[in-house]
Automatic annotation (TrEMBL):
Residues 9-394 form the Major facilitator superfamily (MFS) profile domain. Signal peptide: none annotated. GO terms for biological process: xenobiotic detoxification by transmembrane export across the plasma membrane. Keywords: Cell membrane, Membrane, Transmembrane, Transmembrane helix, Transport. This is Drug resistance transporter, Bcr/CflA subfamily. The keyword Transport applies. It is a multi-pass membrane protein. Gene3D superfamilies: Multidrug resistance protein D. It comes from Spirosoma linguale (strain ATCC 33905 / DSM 74 / LMG 10896 / Claus 1). It is found in: Cell membrane. The chain crosses the membrane at residues 7-24, 44-63, 75-94, 100-121, 133-155, 161-183, 213-233, 249-267, 279-302, 368-389.
Amino acid sequence: MTRRQHFVIILILGALSTISPFSIDMYLPGFPAIAKDLHTSISQVQLSLTAYLVGISVGQLLYGPLLDRFGRKLPLYAGLMVYFIASIGCAFSSSIEMLIAMRLLQALGGCVGLVAAQALVRDLFPVGEIAQVFSLLTLVVAVSPMIAPTVGGYATVAFGWHSIFVILAIITLLMLVGVYFVLPNGKAPDASLSLRPKAVMGSFYTVLKQPQFLTYALVGGIATSAPFAYLAGSSDVFMNIYHVSAQEYGWIFAFLAIALIGPTQLNRFLLRRFSNEQIIFATLIYQTVVGLLLVLGTWAGWYGQYGLIGMLFLFLGGQGITNPNASALSLAPFSRHAGSAAALMGSFRMGFGSLVSASVSLLHNNTAIPMVGIMTACIILGLVILLIGERVIRHQAKSADLDGPMAEALL
């Protein structure tokens, strides 16, 4: 693979991975306009975000076996077409109930991009390069929050919130062209893999019983769901509490997205000196400290608008490091079941994300406390799971080392 091919492949995989970030971030500045136009409340509009996250969580479980059975491209085509149709449906929604339903369908189609991109990384690159490739993908994905809310804010003001979903539909068509003409096929279809429920559940069980996968998929799922609390609550916090405009909110969102970009590239250098496990542990400790200061300062009234932005910047910086390392450690043990592993990993992430965003909506109290409190709780819980899971992994490895010599002696 030449450097040019390497760059183009990562760019397309990154674009597929940005479907969900764009779908989430672009319409955030339109929340007040959507609420006003559909005669509902901000908290009800937030449920359309929850519906999207639920759809991603469920949809990824469906696409995992399909990607292993039929190869990577056929399910990609089908899912992207569903996303395109649902985006048009969102644009023409006349009630909050219809918007929520269309967002659910949109997620069920669009989540194929995330699962397929992760599986293709496992297909196309050596295991030793996976973490670095994920860092590059995270860089591409991290650019989307800088662009999406800004574009969404200006599109909402100029053309109305409906135009956001028309833009998403057009972007999807461009992705379809790139997938068809440029993206390699990856792993070939495997006719021996059955799609019967029992066989599918067996594949998932094979993945879940691997302690390394379960530990880092849960850590990644819970710890990296912290930004979903920020996504669910930030528009209300900045636009209703601090009274910024839709365009200003887009720029704030873009600035905070920079916190994701720098650390993703720092991770590539850290990997030359430290293991994935060491990097994740140090990052979660850092985020725990920052998160506790964020909650305490918000409760005590230490931070104004700019102080809150600064603390959020420090907190979100850890996400760009945890995510690629957790993903690499989760997928490393698998080749044949990489699609199912990627689906479960993504499902954990979005499932926790949907719970987090729903919690922010339910705990809404016209302050920033629900948002920052849930963000911090995600990190602390992820750290606890990491400590317990690594003990289990070490115990299993020690048992395997002991069983080997004993088995040889018995023979």
